[in-house]
Hints:
Blueprint lengths: L2 E8 L14 E5 L2 E5 L14 E4 L4 E4 L3 E2 L9 E5 L2 E8 L5 E9 L4 E6 L8 E2 L2 E4 L3 E9 L2 E10 L4 E4 L14 E5 L2 E8 L3 E9 L4 E5 L2 E2 L10 E4 L2 E10 L10 E10 L4 E7 L14 E7 L2 E10 L5 E13 L5
Parallel strand pairs: 1-24, 6-10, 20-24
Antiparallel strand pairs: 1-27, 2-3, 3-4, 4-5, 7-8, 8-9, 9-10, 11-13, 12-13, 13-14, 14-15, 16-17, 17-18, 18-19, 21-22, 22-23, 23-24, 25-26, 26-27
Amino acid sequence: MAEVQGKWVKLVQNGTGPGARSSHAIAIVGQQVYAFGGEFTPRVPVDNKLHVYDLDSLTWSVADVTGDIPPPRVGVTMAAVGNIIYVFGGRDVEHNELNELYSFDTSTNKWTLISNEDAGPPHRSYHSTTADDRNVYIFGGCGVAGRLNDLWAFNGVDNKWVKFPLPGNNLKGRGGLGLVVAQEKVWVVYGFAGEEVDDVHYFDLAHKKWAQVETKGEKPTARSVFPIFGIGKYIFTYGGEVDPSDQGHLGAGKFSGEVYALDTETLVWKKLEDGADSSNHPGPRGWCAFAGGQCGGKEGLLVYGGNSPSNDRLGDIFFFTPFAEVDGEK
């Protein structure tokens, strides 16, 4: 029987990088990792530079950009469709929730403001974003009047926002949730809805319907602000906040360092163990920047920075590759 394991590798960082931060975002296009936003001091945006990390040379640089450059922000999200990166929402230096959608063309290094104000989703931060080969999806987050539970899609070809039907009351408004497209469904995994929650829902893109599912197996405890990504029918989660700080966003809660995989067909969770050749496990953390991509020809999850149990911002980079080991062979 296959034992599901994973390999963690800590990546070297050459050049001058953006440094330690949390509540930031990354997107991967080819072998380039683009990082934007975040904080070092709680609730204070660091900068609005677009930092680029090359996965071949393991070197940081700062993109020489033109166009509508977004102001600094925290609690922002990014997702890539082809060679275009989309950046949505967040919270500015005065703690205002934002709702601008920007695109960044990695072939021309140009920023473009696509929508704001009444166009598209309402203002929010600490929402979640994912993408398929056609659309960028936005769900939830902290809105002006409370936590949200709405799902939107932006199609870059049609240049239009679409608002999907709202879910039922059992999918409470939340921030810091996991959002993944798998099996033609948009999955909402866990999050913070006034407390850490452990429910799983999906929106069926073909039938335009919501459903809540009951998962089983080695189910992770309730958590939020965790990295998440999908490969085929599997959704993988790492770390996250399992117990919030009594100081709110100013403090560090209790964090996990575990990796779990959810089979979206059987709805069975499996806890992944570290493979023998893993090096430098990232340990417990949350509020990280993360994205699925390829490194060294392997598909997996890149995790950059985040917040630690000591409330110190982190600046390291790790890449996680899941695999199954059968009778000693990988």
